């Protein structure tokens, strides 16, 4: 009997210890859309942590650094929409040929997107707009097989890697 009581006490302690330990942050959510007349690919990253930078990895291993990462802003509350919410950002870009550039951008999202109907989302946390510049061949490849591409999101304390989201 005393052995059974000890095992029960150890099981209770193990459950209590895991319940009190800090849990990992929820995975980020990403919405993606394309600029109408350009090779720009826009993403909205919603997470509990501030996004520092992002990069796309092509199926053949080429890394594409985000051209611009916006300043984090609070994610909309339940029932609110992203439509019409402007974004300001400062970013840099680096090319495979060694070129580097910086810039400041102001964008106005057109239409809704996100987790619910009508562009509504109920996610808490921060939202960051990310912009990638892709040539037409890369953009066609991304559109045809986004799951073969990888998206790396750098939050400073961790880097999350996930399959790139499909374009609508």
Describe the structure.
This protein is α+β, with helices and mostly antiparallel strands and 168 residues long. It has one domain (25-163). It is 17% helix and 36% strand. It contains two helices and eleven strands, in the order H-E-E-E-E-E-E-E-E-E-H-E-E. It has helices at 2-20, 136-144, and strands at 29-34, 40-47, 53-57, 63-65, 68-70, 73-74, 87-94, 100-107, 126-133, 150-154, 159-163. Strands 1, 2, 5, 6, 7, 8 and 9 form a seven-stranded antiparallel β-sheet that branches. A four-stranded antiparallel β-sheet has the order 4-3-10-11, with no helix packed on it. The longest helix has 19 residues, at 2-20. The radius of gyration is 20 Å and the shape is globular. Mean pLDDT is 72; it is low at 80-84, 88-95 and 103-123.
Radius of gyration: 20 Å
How many separate structural domains?
A: 1
| Oligomer state of the chains in this structure | single chain
Inertia-based shape: globular
- Strand tally, please? 11
Q: Count up the helices.
A: 2
Distance between the termini: 62 Å
Taking pLDDT < 50 over at least 5 consecutive residues as the criterion, the unreliable ranges are: 80-84, 88-95, 103-123
Helix and strand composition category? alpha+beta
Q: Report the sheet-strand fraction.
A: 35-45%
Mean pLDDT across all residues, rounded?
72
Please bin the fraction of helical residues.
10-25%
What kind of sheet is the major sheet?
7 strands, antiparallel
| Order of helix and strand elements from N to C terminus | HEEEEEEEEEHEE
Signal peptide: 1-24
Keywords: Signal
Protein name: DUF3261 domain-containing protein
């Amino acid at each position: 009997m005393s052995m059974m009581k000890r095992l029960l006490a150890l099981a209770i302690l193990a459950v209590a210890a895991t319940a009190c330990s800090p849990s990992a942050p929820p995975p980020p959510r990403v919405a993606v859309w394309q600029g109408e007349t350009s090779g720009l690919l826009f993403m909205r990253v919603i997470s509990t942590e501030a996004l520092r930078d992002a990069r796309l990895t092509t199926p053949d291993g080429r890394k594409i650094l985000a051209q611009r990462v916006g300043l984090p802003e609070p994610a909309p509350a339940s029932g609110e929409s992203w439509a019409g919410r402007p974004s300001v950002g400062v970013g840099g870009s680096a090319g495979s040929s060694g070129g580097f550039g910086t810039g400041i951008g102001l964008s106005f999202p057109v239409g809704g997107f996100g987790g619910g109907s009508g562009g509504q989302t109920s996610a808490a946390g921060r939202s960051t707009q990310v912009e990638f510049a892709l040539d037409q061949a890369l953009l066609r490849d991304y559109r045809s097989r986004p799951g073969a591409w990888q998206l790396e999101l750098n939050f400073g304390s961790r880097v999350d890697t996930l399959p790139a989201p499909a374009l609508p």
